[in-house]
Specification:
Blueprint: H1 13-34, H2 38-41, H3 54-85, H4 88-91, H5 93-115, H6 122-154
Helix pairs in contact: 1-3, 1-6, 3-5, 3-6, 5-6
The chain binds fe (ii) ion (FE2) (2 copies).
One fe (ii) ion binds next to helix 3 and helix 6.
């Protein structure tokens, strides 16, 4: 994940496209996790699961969640690098700091959820985890990422 050059003419075109693509990937990875477990999708717990291989489920979920988490964290780093490299951080320090704070909070919360997976409660945890992240991610994009790209466009 890198961008070839900075928007020298004051337009965020390339950066915006890169960010949008990363958001698309994030959503895709998140729905892959959400769709892993038919029980979770049906709002059922693990007790009524006919497959019922809890250890296996737990491993698959944590592998995919780890992949999602590391993609998410490098996406956040990428946005934060853009803030610095475009000078936005210097120009709009307060909003950049709030934005970065939300990245930190989201990473922390996701990590907590992923590290507390319990093989007996996996399907309900999974449903909670993915709907929580989906909501937070779309709020974050509306409240922080869009305004950031708009500010880059205006500069
Ligand atoms: Fe983002
Ligand atoms: Fe962001």
């Amino acid at each position: 994940m890198h961008h070839a050059k900075l928007p020298g003419n004051g337009h965020s075109g390339n950066l915006g496209a890169e960010i949008n693509e990363e958001h698309r990937m994030l959503r895709q990875k998140l729905s892959a996790v959400a769709e892993l477990c038919p029980q979770a999708m049906a709002g059922q717990d693990c007790k009524s699961c006919s497959v019922h291989v809890p250890k296996h489920c737990c491993r698959v979920v944590s592998d995919l969640s780890e992949d999602l988490m590391s993609y998410m964290v490098s996406h956040f780093r990428n946005e934060e690098r853009m803030m610095r490299e475009t000078g936005l951080f210097q120009r709009a320090r307060e909003s950049c700091e709030r934005h970065m704070q939300d990245h930190g909070d989201m990473s922390e919360a996701a990590l907590q959820l992923v590290t507390h997976l319990d093989e007996c409660k996996l399907s309900t945890q999974l449903a909670g985890l993915t709907s929580f992240l989906e909501r937070w991610m779309s709020d974050h994009i509306t409240q922080h990422d869009r305004p950031m790209l708009d500010m880059l466009d205006e500069s």
